[in-house]
């Protein structure tokens, strides 16, 4: 029955792209990650960083790819999820946009002016407590201050845990 064969062939062609492209990232997240981590935008803002196009997590900094491979997600879907999370992650571009006119690039700025030790962030030469200084500098609000302190520490490559809410709380929402 050629007509049937033809329609089967057409059906295959229609289905093929679906198979090769895989599911979209939102669908993967909703079925595999949402139960534990909740909303992906909130999760990304809280725990993930886009540092020069690299996805880094708050706790898993260097070995995130390896961690993800062992973490509820099949290999062929990792890249899709990674791209989505990268797009939603905290980005150092915020410094470029809001502070760059006066302070230049983030990497240089941090190297030259910022000293991170434990949860203390200090002006390298000024000796200022940056947490106190930033509140009100350029009309920054407490949540912006927290963001920039975390960003400086991240760029300096120093551990820093300024999150009031530990990871497990986000997991149970
Ligand atoms: C059964 C619950 C559960 C599911 C499902 C789950 N996770 Fe997790 N996830 C956790 C726990 C618990 C941690 C923290 C444990 C750790 O750090 O080793 C974590 C940590 C993470 C981290 C690191 C966060 C950080 O700050 O370092 C990322 C990224 C992550 N998960 C992504 C995902 C993605 C993407 C999915 C879906 C494919 C997913 N998780 C599914 C429980 C889950
Ligand atoms: C209009 C210019 C301008 C902009 C925009 C600006 N700053 Fe500043 N910033 C300054 C000046 C000038 C100083 C030093 C003088 C002072 O102490 O007030 C300074 C000092 C600082 C210091 C202290 C450095 C030290 O050595 O103690 C930090 C940290 C800082 N700025 C962060 C930021 C962040 C984060 C942003 C973006 C949200 C930002 N600044 C935007 C002009 C600016």
How would you characterize the overall build of this protein?
Strand 1 (48-51) and strand 2 (54-57) form a beta hairpin. The protein has helices at 2-21, 25-32, 34-37, 40-47, 64-69, 75-88, 93-103, 106-113, 130-134, 142-156, 167-172, and strands at 48-51, 54-57, 90-91, 114-117, 120-123. It is mainly α. It has eleven helices and five strands. Helix 2 packs across helix 6 (75-88). The protein is elongated and about 80 Å long. The strands form two sheets. The chain has a three-stranded mixed beta sheet with strand order 2-1-3. Strands 4-5 form a two-stranded antiparallel sheet. The protein has two domains: 23-91, no CATH class; 93-156, no CATH class. The chain binds heme C (2 copies). Residues 98-99, 101-103, 113, 123, 125-126, 128, 130, 133-134, 137-138, 140, 148 line the site of one heme C.
Short description:
This protein is mainly alpha-helical. The protein has helices spanning 2-21, 25-32, 34-37, 40-47, 64-69, 75-88, 93-103, 106-113, 130-134, 142-156, 167-172; strands at residues 48-51, 54-57, 90-91, 114-117, 120-123.
């Amino acid at each position: 029955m050629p007509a049937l064969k033809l329609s089967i062939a057409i059906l295959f062609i229609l289905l093929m792209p679906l198979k090769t492209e895989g599911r979209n990232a939102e669908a993967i997240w909703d079925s595999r990650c949402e139960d534990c981590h909740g909303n992906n935008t909130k999760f990304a803002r809280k725990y993930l960083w886009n540092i020069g196009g690299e996805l880094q997590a708050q706790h898993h900094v260097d070995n995130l790819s390896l961690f993800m491979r062992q973490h509820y997600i099949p290999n062929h879907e990792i890249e899709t999820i990674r791209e989505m999370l990268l797009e939603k992650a905290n980005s150092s571009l915020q410094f470029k946009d809001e502070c760059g006119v006066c302070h230049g690039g983030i990497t240089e700025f941090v190297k030259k002016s910022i000293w991170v030790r434990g949860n203390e962030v200090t002006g390298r030469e000024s000796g200022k407590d940056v947490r106190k200084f930033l509140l009100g500098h350029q009309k920054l609000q407490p949540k912006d201050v927290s963001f920039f302190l975390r960003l400086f520490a991240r760029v300096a490559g120093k551990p820093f845990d300024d999150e009031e809410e530990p990871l497990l709380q986000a997991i149970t929402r």
